[in-house]
Specification:
Largest sheet: 8 strands, mixed
Number of helices: 6
Strand content: 15-25%
CATH architecture: 3-Layer(aba) Sandwich
Order of helices and strands: EEEHEHHEHEEHEH
Radius of gyration: 15 Å
CATH topology: Rossmann fold
Length: 206
């Protein structure tokens, strides 16, 4: 069952499974999207079918403005939004919580986890934006050495924001356990990822 969810400053769509397994997943969107992104909706439905309570939610920048990219100066507010969403899920389920996001949302989720290791049991990072397209020197890995939360990275083989080789090298900087699931032929939008939902669940830690 899908329903509109609003609690405090957290807003999105909650997927309640028919047979809940006590665990929860929170998912958020990229810089140009919102909680209704097709990737998030498809994954949320697939995860809920397997018994997970799933919240796909809007980051604070999107709650402020229905369109437009986030402002770097307000990124800390988006990370606070990640923390609030994880806390909302902890109030809904007695088991473990996984925090995830696509592109910008995944980056802010990972940064929030580096700041607060108790944020989630593990992370699901979809198309982590390792660097801007055609700018491989501008790596977004400055916090990787502080990340103590296990993370599953799901990445397309045609992602312009980082090749699989570049991402594997970057993962060596993370002291926590990491895993990489490659989606053959997918770009940054990860259109082929929902078909791997079952494999994601087997490789995430709950």
């Amino acid at each position: 069952m899908e329903e509109r969810f609003e609690s405090g400053a957290v807003a999105g769509i909650l997927h309640r499974p028919a047979r809940p397994n006590a665990h929860g997943i929170v998912l958020t969107h990229g810089a140009g999207s919102n909680a209704n992104a097709p990737l998030l909706a498809a994954l949320a439905r697939a995860f809920a079918e397997q018994g997970y309570t799933v919240l796909r939610y809007d980051l604070p920048f999107r709650l402020r403005r229905p369109k437009g990219p986030p402002f770097p100066a307000q990124a800390a507010e988006d990370r606070e939004g990640v923390r609030r969403a994880a806390a909302a899920m902890r109030a809904l389920v007695p088991g473990s919580v996984v925090a995830g996001g696509h592109s910008y949302g995944g980056r802010q989720t990972a940064m929030a986890a580096a700041e607060d290791p108790a944020l989630a049991r593990s992370l699901l990072l979809l198309s982590y934006p390792l660097h801007p397209p055609d700018k491989p020197a501008q790596l977004r890995t400055s916090f990787f050495g502080e990340l103590r939360t296990p993370a599953l990275f799901v990445h397309g083989t045609r992602d312009a924001f980082g090749s699989l080789g570049e991402l594997r090298a970057a993962l060596a900087l993370i002291p926590a356990a990491t895993d990489l699931l490659a989606v053959e032929g997918s770009g940054h939008d990860l259109k082929g990822a929902p078909s791997f939902a079952g494999e994601m669940l087997t490789r995430m830690l709950f």
